[in-house]
Amino acid sequence: MWGALLRRGVRGAGGVRCLSSGGPPWNQVVSEAEKIVGYPTSFMSLRCLLSDELSNIAMQVRKLVGTKHPLLDTARGFVYDSRNNLQMRGLVVLLISKAAGPSTAQLSFQHDMVSGIYSSQRSLAEITELIHTAFLVHRGIVNIGELKSCDGPLKDMQFGNKMAVLSGDFLLANACTSLAQLQNTKVVELISSAIGDLVQGIYYENSKSSENCLTDDIGISRWKEQVFLSHSALLAKSCQAAMELAKHSAEIQDMAFQYGKHMSMSHKLHSDLQPFVKESSSDTMAFSLNSAPVILHQEFRGREAWLKQIREAQGKGNIVDYKKLQEAIKAGKGVTSAIDLCRCHGNRALAALERFPPSEARDALANIVYAVTRFP
Predict the structure, then answer these.
(1) pTM beyond 0.90, yes or no
(2) From start to end of 89-227, where are the E strands?
(3) Residue range 303-328: average pLDDT?
């Protein structure tokens, strides 16, 4: 049912929406979903972010103004980034909690529910966001050995690294404290393993000599394994943990896990595809040579042909002409294959939703899938 709907549209409270005929944009989908769960999830981590400790950190981060330290961009994103919606993970946890509702084992605790969601599930959504934010901050650590003079004074960049480590650790510690307060051993085990997955995934990312390492030949299967660890495991296991908190069956827990996994895989593929599908952009968008469309392009072309294309796109000083390389990739099959893969994961996410009863929350979860599987 859902597979056919992914091509035609989804009928929810707002009527039929089609992927190819201008359905609601991402921001609208998120806004409608936030109304269903009871409050804007952009305020989910507010209690922690307004603490005295983090306010002191924010004051220190101001010292980085004038440098190119990535911690500044991360901090700006918390305030200004509505386009990519940094709070998406917590929102999905709340939606799937409401879509599942109370289990028969928890009916006597319905007085603890607000807008159809248990307080423990709301705490879990906050914990998920704190963990995600902590790792975003940790990703802002730069390699001092690769800095250029235009990036900023060395002492400021070193200071930025210290702040990224300390502030990320602070957020992660708060998340772990809140996790322990849930007093559920299985949930602690699930979220702890997700943190371990994140560390492993980021290790794989950083094991390359540089972000756009030209010698990697990981293949799309390995790419999916690494993306699950670094992008999907946290949401998938958080969705499963939300079902555990409501004492739902193992089957429902697995369906929640599958939705979180495949929706976030679609989200990552959608992000990777943007430099190759944007129609209005006159400038070449930056893209990673380890993104899905590029890896699929390499698989179709063959390793040697791909390396030849890179050499042809290199100018003086081995500087890659990304505009030329982008055109070569768009002319191949990698982009269309990545779109197909994005929609394949979207179909699997929608299939998982079939196990949940019809509701506004389920429609919102489906609309999120539609938002990340639509392309110009």
Answers:
(1) no
(2) 113-114, 117-118
(3) 83
